[in-house]
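U., I forgot to send this yesterday:
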Amino acid sequence: MRFSPAIVLLTFAACALAPQSTSSPLAPALAELAGRPQLAGGRIGVCVVDAADGVVLAELSAGNGFAPASNLKLISGAVALVALGPDYRFTTELAMHGELRDGVLHGDLLLRGRGDPTLGVGRGAVEATQRFVDALRQRGVQRVTGGVVGDDRWLGAEHLGHGWQWDYLDEDYAAPFGALCWNGNVQRVVVRAEGAKARVEGAAAALPGQVELVPAGGVTRVVARRELGGERIHITGTIAADAKPLTLAVTVPDPTRFAARELAAKLRAAGLAIGEPAASAVSDAGVPIAEWRSPPSAELLVPLLRDSDNLYAEQFHRVAARVATGAGDGAAASKHAVAVLQTLGVDGAGLVLADGSGLSRRNLVQPRQLARLLVAMERSPQRAAYWAALPVAGATGTLRSRFVGTAAAGRVRAKTGTIDRVACLSGYVPRANAAPIVFSIMLNDFVCSSAEAREAIDAFVLQLVAFADAQPVRR
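Result:
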C-alpha cells in the first residue's frame, strides 16, 4: 500500500500550529518545571497544543533539537501506519532449491525474509514451523541433503543502528534487525542450581564454570555477556542453592544465520532429516512452497508503542521505506520518514533520524515536531489504531507504574522515552466532548537521577490534566 502525498497534504494542511497565547494559563506550570533545581544545567523542551484548533498553549525551546530516546517510536509508528496501512502483514517464504527425487531434496531450503519481527516468537514459532513442515510433507520431502539457508537481501546488509553503543549490543533491548528475524533475535540462557553445582543450559558457546553455587538463602546475581562481534557468551555471578532457575536473554551476532539454524533445528525435531547448507550464497532460484504471514500492522503497533519494543520499531522503520520506495537501508528509511511527516504537516527541518527506535544518540527531534505529529494523527484516518497502541497512564505498557492513583491514571495516553541523561514523555490528555490536549516534554543532559527527571515530567502532566478539566465544555 502506498500513501498519496497529494491527498494526505490536502487532508492535513490545517495541522500547522497557531501562535501561542500571550497570556497562557499554563505559564506558571511551565515556570515551575523550568525552575526545578534538580534539572539545573540540563535542557528542557516543551510544546503543549490544543488539538481542537492547533493553538499553542505553552512552549519552551520547542524548536530546538533533543535526543528523543523512545519518543522516536511515535514517528516510526505513525510513518508505518500512513505508509503501510493498518492491515499490512509481513511475509516470510520457504522455497526448495535443488532436485527432489524419491523423497530426498538434493539441495537446500531457502528461508526468505521480508522483515517480520514476529517470526519464531511464541505461538508464531509453532505455527510458522508447522506451516513449513506441512508444506514439505505435502511435497513428499523426507530428507534434505543440504540445509536451511537464510536470505536477508530484501532489507540489505545493515543489522545495527547508526550510532548504537558498543557496550549494550548484547542486551536484549538492542537486538540486531534485518529481513530475517527469529525469536526477537535473542537466545535464551537458563541458569539453575543443580545438586552441588550451577548448570547452564541453552548456550552452546557459553564458557563453563563461571557461575558459583552459594548456600541456600545466599545472593543470586547472574550476568550474561556476549563477546563483542562473536558468539561466545560469558555467564558470571552467583546462584543460591534454593534459587529458582534464571532465564537470561542475549542478542545474537548474526540474525540471518540464527534464523536459518533455528528453523533447521525445528524441522529436525518434527522428524525431517536436515543436513547442513552446501553453500551460504543465496539466489532467486528455487520453488516457493510456503508463506508465513504476520498479524496485521495495527496489532503489531501495540508492542512497538505500548511496550516500546526496539526491534519492532526498527523493522517498521525500514520495511515502510522498502515497500514505498524499493530501498530499506537506514538512509532510505530516514528520507522516507521525513517525506511522510511532511505530508502530515510536520516540518522536517532540523530533524535527524539515525535509527527507528531511539537507541541512537545521533537522533534529534523537536518538541514542536512531535506535537504537530500528534495533532495530525488525532485527525488522521489511522487515529484509532495509533491511539489504541499508546501506553495508558497507571495501566499499561511503559506507563503501568506511573501516575497510579492520580487524575491522569487510566486517562493520559503517552509514549515514554528513556536513555542515559534523557527523559521524554509525549502524548494526549483527553477531554470530555473536545479534542485532547497534546503535549511533548523532552529533558536532556540533566545530572539528577532518571527517577527525579520523570517526577518533574509527571508533575507537569498532572497540571495539564487539571488545566484540561478546568476548561469549559466545547461542542
